[in-house]
Design a protein that fits this description.
alpha/beta, globular, Rossmann fold
């Protein structure tokens, strides 16, 4: 498999033509979603996007930006935020449309990524609640045995948070906390964000984020290792 650090092409498993559902909640850190959209669209992927009701309020509170309700305008909004005017496919769904395609287990997808994921959303999914399209789509992934990946953005975790996350992990959900690394020598905030985005997309075997992956000390002759006695 060719690294995408230079090619920016989309490398996936055999279901590469299927869309990826991207759920966006009202957790702080919408930049994670924006960067994911950027790299996926640049790799010519298809995204089925649903943002929770709280997402609208977070955009207004954190960025003083009003996210449109109309799905066509919303697609243009996300593309503008991601800086990708063309390429890939992006379909936005109203948060209340529980009759959308992604609400059915018969709709073929690669799975669902919720990023960032609020603790409220974690709790509802863990309890099997489906009060909106995002939660219903997540519940569908669970019942169909499809991939569901959550990127929680909260600190510190309470015992209730940890128990809900544990229940989801026991049900097969992949938990990728929004915790950056430093071994790839990040220089900007985007570098830190992109590490988390890359690790989340790794769960779907999607390699479309330029990232200096860990190569081991053997490939770094400039690094000296101390003898351990």
């Amino acid at each position: 498999m060719t690294s995408l650090s230079s090619s920016h092409s989309l490398s996936t498993t055999s279901n590469k033509t299927r869309p990826l559902i991207l759920g966006i909640t009202g957790a702080s850190g919408l930049i994670y979603a924006v960067r994911a959209i950027k790299f996926l669209l640049e790799a010519d992927a298809t995204i089925e996007l649903v943002a929770s009701k709280s997402t609208y309020m977070v955009w207004q509170a954190e960025q003083q930006v009003r996210m449109p309700l109309d799905v066509v305008q919303q697609e243009q909004f996300w593309r503008q935020q991601a800086g990708v005017e063309s390429g890939g496919k992006l379909r936005c769904h109203p948060w209340g449309d529980v009759g959308a395609t992604i609400a059915s287990g018969s709709y073929r997808t690669q799975g669902m990524l919720i990023m960032p994921c609020s603790m409220s959303t974690v709790a509802k999914i863990a309890a099997g609640l489906s009060s909106d399209l995002l939660e219903r789509a997540a519940d569908v992934q669970l019942k169909e045995g499809k991939k569901l990946v959550l990127v929680p953005r909260e600190t510190p975790f309470s015992l209730i948070h940890l128990r809900n996350l544990t229940a989801l992990a026991e049900a097969g959900v992949r938990i990728v906390p929004a915790i950056p690394a430093w071994y790839h020598n990040p220089q900007t905030v985007e570098d830190l964000v992109d590490f988390v985005v890359a690790r989340a997309l790794d769960q779907f075997d999607l390699d479309c984020v330029p990232l200096n992956r860990w190569a081991g000390h053997l490939d770094r002759p400039d690094l000296e290792t101390e003898e351990i006695s």
